[in-house]
Amino acid sequence: MLNLVLFGPPGAGKGTQAIFLAETFNLVHLSTGDLLRQEIADKTELGLMAQEIMSKGELVPDSIVISMIEVKLKNPNNGFIFDGFPRTTPQAQALDSLLEKHGTKVSVMLCLEVAKEELISRLLNRGLSSGRSDDTDPATIENRINVYNEKTAPIISFYESQGKYISIHGVGTIEDIAVSLKRAIENIPI
Ligand code: AMP
């Protein structure tokens, strides 16, 4: 099985590239952001709670996102692509044990590298069409990037120590970045 963690700061292009990679390698695309937005759209109790946290650019508690992923680890096709998960070290550890229970593991973590100024301009631009409130408010965007640097970026060393971290230059056309990702995946030693 091929299990990819697509990693990077908000606005790095994870969602767009995850859709492409899921199609290319026949993977199930699991985005915790999408799952949470669905809860909000369905007006569930969880959605109401998550909405408040997400509108501030903070992280939803680990236990909630881990349970969301746990129930989706079925019918893997050729594997999974995790987009926006894990975002903390406890989430990364939980993912390892969940996959182990299914007799599999993370194959590789692909990190899209994009400079902060570019992220801010991409997010503000996306906010014009996405209708996502967390993409329109500059203070929320700034907080999301800070939260990424403080709580999420430390996971890089978690995967680096397992020899699974691959850095990908995340600036250029969508097609160019897709090619870099595809090449990196095709070169993973089996
Ligand atoms: P995203 O669509 O990945 O940018 O996620 C949007 C928002 O959903 C984030 O800013 C967080 O508030 C929340 N969220 C998504 N995934 C996670 C996660 N793995 N852990 C905690 N919060 C998350």
List keywords for this structure.
9 helices, 190 residues, five-stranded parallel β-sheet, alpha/beta, binds adenosine monophosphate, globular
Global shape: globular
Annotation, overall tally of beta strands? 5
Gap between N and C termini, in Å? 10 Å
Q: Poorly predicted ranges (pLDDT <50, ≥5 residues)?
A: none
Taken as a percent bin, the fraction of beta residues is 5-15%
Describe the model.
The chain is built from 9 helices and 5 strands; from the N terminus they run βαβαααβαβαααβα. It has helices at 14-25, 32-41, 45-55, 62-72, 89-101, 116-130, 138-152, 155-160, 174-186, and strands at residues 4-7, 28-31, 80-83, 108-113, 165-169. The chain is of the alpha/beta class. The chain has a 5-stranded parallel β-sheet. It is globular and about 45 Å long. Helix 2 crosses helix 3 and helix 4 (62-72) packs parallel to helix 5. Bound molecules: adenosine monophosphate.
Short description:
This protein has about 190 residues and is of the alpha/beta class.
